User: Fold Xylulose kinase from Saccharopolyspora rhizosphaerae.
Amino acid sequence: MLVLGIDSSTQSTKALVVDADSGEVVAEAKASHPDGTEVDPKAWWDAAQSAIGEAVARAPGRIEAVSVGGQQHGMVALDDQGEVVRDALLWNDTRSAPQADELTARHGAKELAARTGSVPVASFTITKLAWLAHNEPQHADRVAQVLLPHDWVSWQLAGRPERTWTDHGDASGTGYYSPTTGEWLPDLLTDAMAGRTPAVPEVLAPNARAGQAALPGIEGATIGVGTGDNMAAALGLGLKPGDVAVSLGTSGAVFAPAEQASADETGTVAGFCDATGRYLPLVCTLNAARVLTSTAQVLDTDLEGLSRLALSAEPGAGGLSLLPYLEGERTPNLPEATGTLTGLTGANMTPQNLARAAVEGMLCGMADAIEALRDTGAEVRRVLLIGGAARSEAVQGIAPSLFGVDVDVPDPAEYVALGAAKQAAWACSGAATPPEWEVAGTRRAVGDDTSGRAVRAAYSRARNQVHGI
Ligand SMILES: Nc1ncnc2c1ncn2[C@@H]1O[C@H](COP(=O)(O)OP(=O)(O)O)[C@@H](O)[C@H]1O
Ligand SMILES: O=C(CO)[C@@H](O)[C@H](O)COP(=O)(O)O
Assistant:
């Protein structure tokens, strides 16, 4: 039996056709999304149709089921005809930072963490709805329903039926859902939207059959419930206790499976649900893979060239530290921040050191995130490095000493789309637990030095100097 997994993430849509018995990927395709932090959702649907069409054309048989993993938090506001009211505001759009502060001041961080699992920052859907109510009341008045990106793409796949749905994982990133009771929190939604209460999708079980595909080429295939991209990656990797995933895509996301819900009132760790009915505490930064792309551009090289340069510099980049807050930052919560390069001298200002500082700066944020997860009780036995930037040799070489824990690199693959495919197979199997697919070859990354502590200390000093934290 063949199933289809879709990853509709920030930069692109990926589609994988997978053999449901073995987990083997038999066909795949990819289509890009536009840049920017506000996007017309139709661009995701165009990309999905293109990637699905290509993947399915290469598939050796009929697709029985499909599921969608999508970038978390994005605000897809629909009117009473099901049309989008305005472009979606994405997870990495920081304009709603003042609304995040206001909501937290009004309700209290402790209360919000206890009720929703998280203290909202600008990424969370609830703050985007509050921004809309305050800045575009004419649009807010027209909002009849709010969906998340994966809900909206699944709904298009189903041919826009009467019913809309979501899952626990993605719902837990809205800021108006309770991970512990599994219920929406309409009072928080109404408060954020200044008295308006749009409809929200039905929350279905992780292995639900949510609908049937209406898209030509996969018509009649069962649609699984779908989930957030990080929840899908956790499912695709089959994370076990002690495993921590570090995903280096547009965002840097660090997450671990948990049996208990978390409620970190400092706001560092978001208390999300996973895609199996359990939990997925997660720390997220706004600056990961694109830090490397931007630095490569400055150095007039490509990503391989950047990697070579970084590995030819000494650990510590000759005293340079890069605080890579190129898009503002979410963890630490510095939405207005810009990037800073500290420690420049005539002697150390080389392309090699700059490349090294970029890789180290991005990874130091991830090392802090691993520590924050550990502080909330997560067991950290090994790190699994995934996402686009995990393909970089420099990242693989430098991560172990900065993380101070074993780092395994699963074979490069689209783990979000694989997790979505696994969810689709689960919806068909009717079993109590998802299928167990073996994760293809995992290689242990070997660190190039033991100076991780010193590099991290220099990074902390730079952050303290510039931002006082
Ligand atoms: N070898 C590489 N080295 C560094 N970065 C890479 C490499 N290959 C891909 N990337 C980066 O990975 C990013 C895409 O990763 P992905 O996990 O697909 O992101 P997203 O899920 O956010 O769309 C792009 O910014 C791309 O430049
Ligand atoms: O906001 C978060 C997690 O809370 C991000 O991780 C988004 O889910 C986008 O992910 P990528 O496109 O970087 O995979």
Notes: The chain has a mean pLDDT of 97. The pocket of adenosine-5'-diphosphate (ligand 1) is lined by residues 9-12, 249-250, 289-290, 292-293, 303, 387-389, 391-392 (CB under 6 Å). Residues 2-228 form a domain with the Nucleotidyltransferase; domain 5 fold (CATH 3.30.420.40). The longest helix spans residues 351-375.
